[in-house]
Amino acid sequence: xxxxxxxxxxxxxxxxxxxxxxxxxxxxxxxxxxxxxxxxxxxxxxxxxxxxxxxxxxxxxxxxxxxxxxxxxxxxxxxxxxxxxxxxxxxxxxxxxxxxxxxxxxxxxxxxxxxxxxxxxxxxxxxxxxxxxxxxxxxxxxxxxxxxxxxxxxxxxxxxxxxxxxxxxxxxxxxxxxxxxxxxxxxxxxxxxxxxxxxxxxxxxxxxxxxxxxxxxxxxxxxxxxxxxxxxxxxxxxxxxxxxxxxxxxxxxxx
Length: 255
Description:
Blueprint: H1 2-23, H2 54-66, E1 67-73, E2 80-90, E3 93-98, E4 110-114, E5 117-128, E6 133-138, E7 147-148, H3 149-152, E8 166-171, E9 179-188, E10 194-197, E11 208-211, E12 216-228, E13 231-243, H4 249-253
Parallel strand pairs: 2-7
Antiparallel strand pairs: 1-2, 1-4, 2-3, 3-6, 4-5, 5-6, 8-9, 8-11, 9-10, 10-13, 11-12, 12-13
């Protein structure tokens, strides 16, 4: 179990270090400049393939409509962390769920965006660096549809994901996006952390992962790493996902 935990921690640190180095020299003016320009309408929830079932389309719609980009500037004003997040509402307050390693600086230096729309951070309500998640209260985003915590998050242990269950997520890999992906559950660690066979890269961290019933089951934490005779390499198709069961919702929201 110790080896498994160590491997997960190393993987998380690797993805974070890659993201920070890749974005450290960016300026605020370049935050929204990805390598490709994404068409807003074509990337929206009204343009989902007809090849999916009604239930699957519902999951994809929730994923697309709640996905946001999280941008945090460190205290020096030079280093910028780019990540993904999920927008949700609870008790008439608006929040974003992301990974803790996406938080580079103070709340006042963090902004959540979707194309040209943006919202400022109001408060860090919970940052758990051990599990690697953060819940941030933000301003309301008029062009995003927030998830309902009670209706869209899978709390029941009996509904825990099973091997080869279909999953869906939307995020910002390589500062491109929002991009949507499908995947399947490949396995679990002793602690219940999920291995997802899909695709991710720097910037995908914090993306919400949904099952085919439209329930949020976790957030992408890191990519796995492998060691060969040629050295250490990143497995961009094997994602490590923090399950929603590991998040202390009560402490963050019932204050």
